[in-house]
């Protein structure tokens, strides 16, 4: 591959572009291959429309009708997550698997076979800030699939032996992860960024050992309640049909739970730039991460931060990737990503670099970050590419029910104004070079960064110290300071 | 604008779908509309219109991969793929990203042992732009060959090797297995990523020779899928690709089948915390008549909690976190590979022996009708899912053309999969899961005693890894 696929976990970013193409070229003229061909009109934007109803059990119902294909995507979103509930660490990661272990009337094998023959799968998930339950099915198998899903949600038995099996597997996976520089970096970073906040907690082996079967059953019972639920039906089903089917299916899911009053902590104030170093002997590459916390999603600076991220490391042609990878060849890819949360999110630039070029890569990354604050001015070409890549990034999401759902739910789940997407697109397109410099100074300030390096300490420590970028603090793999 | 009926994806037509009546008739296989023709220079063109979203995908595939490399130049086909992004005669470096990512689209390329492709997905008003970009690197790459950029990409690829093979636990197992399955000189003996030493040795002259030999239009297929006007597209294709000269006739290498005269057993020490067990049998390529039956076998013998190996080792005995047995089929030859991730403390010798018992039971009994139904449904479902995106459709059509001379080969595949019987599956299990195989235990450094049958296991390392370090 030219580059690995970027795994962007933005809160559902898609732009809506619908257009009529049909640009014609003048036939018979001599072809000038040095010039890019002319293109048709710029896409215009159109968001899908949706309806909102309240069901008898108190859950909200959102329907987006799309009748071109006989497929329906069904999803219940639950507001609030383990950070807000104060759930014991590690419990939520067993929810999805434990709910496939059988119900009062179906064995685990029966669940597996029945869903396989319906050609679908039901998933349950509880995260730090929210959770969901859902499936995708044919319109004509919707009732059968929903019936199984409700059985799993309401009547799972959470057998204790299954938890023991899953715990053993989770512990083995945790142990295996300790051999991977990127995994170790990902588990140390939250502690450095968030300190003692719930957002700084990372599940460790002791947490996995401490989870009980009752913890999992209790969390499921507490969590999957209508009070905090919004139900999305997207696809080949009318609003009336969806409402009728759900009232029937939810007869066994009465009103319950209490509406969560959620407040999110502010991001901790960043200290002066510090380099944290974790030793993993014999690694031919080092993982370098430069990170900062950022404000919650939908803050006024959101669009500007996204443009900054695209230019810094979000795009293939971004500054970090075009220097560290394309110009120097020190890495297979050095990228950045904005992780938007309802609480404090983070901006993280990172990559795996040749061990012998750890110090050089770090210096280049710092040069590029500092450059974005003013010394290396943002060009019009960079701004255009960043704005386009954020806003024209494909109507392809609107091709699918799941993509459509993510666009609509972003607005409904977060109580945003109906025209939020067009406002966002306007804000991205209005972001200036000065804005990008200001965002970098504010949110990726080179004097207030958390820098984490995981690699072969005996080979890289002296070089990293010699850069004199910041003091070096050595940590173990759990993020504890070494004596 | 004319609207065509969009191709209906998903497992809409998978026969078993239904509530309780399992008696539904098999439905017809969905057909993707495709128009195919050749330019006079030999370039094959495949067009498939779908106006369901204002997006087009462009995929250019060359019938060349790592199997076409010269000895001493392993990894070159993939390195060359990177060179194709460094600019061409009329297109400076950076334009491919400017006119894909920079207009809200995406691009990438990939190389395997048999073929190499380059693809873009963009808003449909950029179709001519992509045709311009692709034609220029097919026709005029050498006019702008930049040694500094070649060298930078050489280093990028070495980092790709470090990241995906050397720095990843168990990352070298695949190349060790292939080197033992296929003898030296066999075109599948070496990994696509190549060796560090060979990557260092690749020269400007190699780039020119490889390009002239393999990147001619008569060894390529151009696929366009999505929202476009075919008449307009054909005019552009003729205008941009037409002037590229035909290259010399292509001679493809002779690729013998995978074969072992006797079992082999190895222990591989790696920087890992826990041991894993790998078994590989000689298999067959995608053109084999056993292909469909082997795929069905793979979809039955491991997978969900009801399936043979998974049920026995993950759920009943609880000796493994996961286990999978799958055919790996290249164009001309292939293998069947088993990977098991044991629970810490489980003895690999005991594990291997129990796995063999389960496989022998499968070979004796064969699958049930219910298992056959589930497996063919899941394979069919997977085929339809791949056809949902414009890009997935383009790659499916191109692969059908390259490997089978038939863009609509996915439909043949589904027909053949549906025709597989339980007796077929039992037959291929007995034919391919025999005693001549490679067993490899990957163990933490210094813990050779953890290997399965440690006393009979020969220590092995990757012949392609290198301790080479980058000078300061």
What does this structure look like?
The complex is a heterodimer of chains A (483) and B (472). Chain A is an alpha+beta fold and 483 residues long. Chain A has helices at 82-85, 95-98, 108-117, 142-155, 160-177, 181-194, 205-210, 213-223, 239-249, 302-314, 319-327, 358-372, 380-391, 396-399, 401-413, 420-429, 433-443, 457-466, and strands spanning 51-54, 60-65, 71-79, 123-126, 130-138, 229-235, 274-279, 285-294, 331-339, 345-354, 450-455, 472-475. Chain A folds into two domains: 51-252, Metalloenzyme, LuxS/M16 peptidase-like (Cytochrome Bc1 Complex, Chain A, domain 1, 2-Layer Sandwich), CATH 3.30.830; 274-414 and 423-475, Cytochrome Bc1 Complex, Chain A, domain 1, CATH 3.30.830. The longest helix of chain A has 18 residues, at 160-177. Chain B has two domains: 32-241, 2-Layer Sandwich (Cytochrome Bc1 Complex, Chain A, domain 1), CATH 3.30.830; 264-459, 2-Layer Sandwich (Cytochrome Bc1 Complex, Chain A, domain 1), CATH 3.30.830.10. Chain B is built from 15 helices and twelve strands. In chain B, helix 3 packs parallel to helix 8 (230-241). Chain B starts with 34 loop residues before the first strand and ends in a 13-residue tail after the last strand. Mean pLDDT of chain B is 91; it is low at 1-25 and 468-472. At the A-B interface, helix 3, helix 5, helix 11, strand 10 and helix 13 of A face helix 2, strand 4, helix 3, helix 4 and helix 8 of B.
Summed over residues and divided by their number, the pLDDT of chain B gives a mean of: 91
CATH level-3 fold name of the largest domain in chain A: Cytochrome Bc1 Complex, Chain A, domain 1
Oligomer: heterodimer
- Known CATH architecture of the largest domain in chain A: 2-Layer Sandwich
Q: How far apart lie the N and C ends of chain B?
A: 60 Å
Q: Fraction of residues of chain B in helices? A: 25-40%
Major sheet of chain A, described briefly? 6 strands, mixed
Strand content of chain A: 15-25%
Strand order of the largest sheet of chain A: 1-2-6-3-5-4
């Amino acid at each position: 591959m030219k580059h690995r696929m970027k795994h962007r976990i933005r809160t559902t970013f898609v732009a809506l572009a619908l257009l009529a193409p049909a640009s014609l070229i003048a036939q018979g003229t001599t072809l000038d291959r040095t010039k890019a061909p002319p293109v048709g009109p710029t896409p215009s934007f159109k968001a899908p429309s949706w309806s909102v109803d309240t069901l008898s059990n108190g859950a909200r119902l959102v329907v987006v009708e799309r009748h071109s294909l006989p497929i329906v995507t069904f999803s219940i979103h639950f507001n609030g997550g383990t950070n807000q509930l104060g759930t014991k660490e590690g419990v939520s990661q067993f929810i999805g698997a434990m709910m496939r272990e059988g119900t009062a009337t179906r064995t685990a094998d029966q669940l597996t076979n029945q869903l396989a023959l319906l050609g679908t799968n039901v998933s349950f998930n509880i995260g730090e800030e929210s959770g969901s339950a859902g499936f995708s099915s044919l319109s004509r198998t919707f009732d059968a699939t929903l019936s199984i899903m409700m059985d799993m949600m309401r009547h799972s038995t959470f057998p204790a032996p299954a938890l023991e099996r899953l715990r053993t597997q989770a512990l083995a996976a945790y142990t295996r992860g300790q051999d991977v520089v990127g995994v170790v970096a990902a588990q140390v970073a939250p502690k450095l960024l968030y300190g003692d906040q719930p957002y700084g907690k990372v599940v460790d082996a002791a947490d996995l050992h401490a989870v009980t079967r009752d913890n999992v059953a209790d969390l499921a019972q507490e969590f999957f309640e209508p009070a905090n639920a919004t139900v999305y039906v997207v696809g080949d089903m009318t609003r009336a049909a969806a409402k009728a089917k759900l009232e029937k299916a939810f007869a066994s899911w009465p009103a319950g739970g209490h509406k969560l009053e959620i407040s999110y902590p502010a991001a901790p104030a960043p200290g002066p730039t510090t380099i944290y170093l974790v030793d993993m002997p014999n690694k031919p590459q080092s993982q370098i991460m430069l990170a900062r916390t950022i404000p919650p999603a939908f803050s006024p600076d959101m669009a500007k931060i996204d443009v900054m991220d695209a230019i810094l490391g979000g795009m293939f042609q971004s500054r970090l990737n075009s220097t560290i990878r394309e110009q120097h060849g020190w890495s297979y890819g050095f990228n950045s990503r904005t992780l938007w949360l309802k609480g404090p999110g983070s901006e993280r630039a990172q990559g795996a670099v040749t061990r012998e070029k750890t110090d050089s890569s770090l210096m280049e990354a710092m040069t590029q970050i500092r450059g974005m604050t003013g010394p290396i001015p943002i060009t019009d070409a960079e701004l255009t590419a960043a704005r386009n890549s954020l806003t024209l990034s494909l109507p392809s999401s609107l091709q699918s029910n799941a993509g459509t759902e993510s666009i609509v739910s972003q607005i409904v789940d977060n109580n945003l104004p109906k025209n939020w997407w067009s406002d966002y697109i306007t804000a991205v397109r209005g972001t200036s070079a000065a804005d990008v410099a200001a965002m970098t100074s504010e949110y990726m300030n080179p004097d207030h960064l958390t820098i984490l390096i995981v690699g072969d300490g005996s080979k890289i420590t002296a070089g990293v110290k010699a850069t004199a970028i910041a003091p070096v603090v050595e940590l173990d793999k759990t993020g504890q300071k070494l004596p | 604008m004319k609207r065509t009926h969009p191709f209906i994806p998903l497992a809409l037509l998978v026969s078993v779908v239904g509530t309780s009546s399992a008696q539904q008739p098999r439905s017809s296989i969905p057909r993707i509309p495709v128009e195919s023709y050749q330019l006079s220079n030999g370039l094959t063109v495949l067009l498939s219109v779908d106006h369901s979203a204002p997006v087009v995908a462009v995929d250019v595939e060359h019938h060349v991969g790592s199997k076409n490399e010269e000895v001493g130049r392993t990894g070159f086909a993939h390195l060359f793929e990177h060179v194709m992004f460094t600019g061409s005669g009329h297109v400076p470096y950076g334009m491919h990203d400017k006119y894909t990512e920079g207009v809200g689209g995406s691009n990438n390329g990939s190389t395997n042992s048999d073929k190499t492709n380059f693809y873009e997905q963009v808003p449909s008003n950029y179709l001519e732009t992509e045709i311009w970009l692709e034609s220029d690197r097919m026709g005029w790459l050498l006019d702008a060959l930049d040694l500094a950029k070649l060298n930078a990409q050489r280093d990028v690829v070495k980092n790709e090797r470090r990241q995906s093979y050397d720095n990843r636990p168990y990352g070298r197992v695949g190349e060790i297995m292939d080197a033992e399955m296929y003898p030296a000189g066999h075109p599948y003996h070496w990994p696509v990523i190549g060796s560090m030493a060979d990557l260092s040795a690749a020269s400007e002259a190699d780039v020119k020779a490889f390009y002239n030999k393999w990147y001619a239009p008569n060894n390529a297929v151009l696929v366009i899928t999505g929202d476009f006007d075919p008449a307009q597209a054909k005019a552009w294709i003729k205008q941009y690709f037409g002037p590229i000269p035909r290259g010399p006739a292509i001679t493809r290498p002779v690729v013998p089948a995978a074969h072992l005269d006797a079992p082999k057993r190895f222990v591989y020490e790696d920087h890992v915390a826990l041991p894993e067990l790998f078994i590989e049998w000689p298999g067959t390529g995608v053109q084999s008549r056993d292909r469909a039956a082997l795929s069905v076998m793979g979809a039955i013998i491991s997978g969900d909690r009801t399936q043979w190996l998974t049920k026995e080792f993950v759920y009943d005995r609880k000796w493994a976190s996961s286990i999978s047995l799958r055919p790996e089929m290249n164009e001309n030859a292939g293998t069947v590979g088993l990977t098991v991730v044991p629970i810490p403390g489980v003895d690999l010798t005991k594990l291997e022996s129990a796995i063999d018992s389960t496989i022998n039971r499968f070979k004796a009994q064969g699958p049930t009708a219910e298992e056959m139904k589930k497996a063919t449904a899941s394979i069919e479902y997977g085929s339809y899912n791949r056809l949902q995106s414009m890009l997935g459709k383009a790659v499916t059509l191109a692969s059908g053309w390259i490997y089978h001379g038939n863009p609509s080969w996915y439909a043949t595949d589904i027909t053949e999969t549906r025709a597989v019987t339980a007796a077929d599956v039992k037959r291929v299990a007995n034919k391919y899961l025999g005693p001549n195989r490679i067993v490899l235990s990957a163990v933490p450094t210094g813990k050779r005693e953890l290997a399965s049958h440690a006393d009979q296991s020969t220590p092995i390392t990757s012949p392609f890894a290198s301790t080479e370090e980058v000078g300061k």
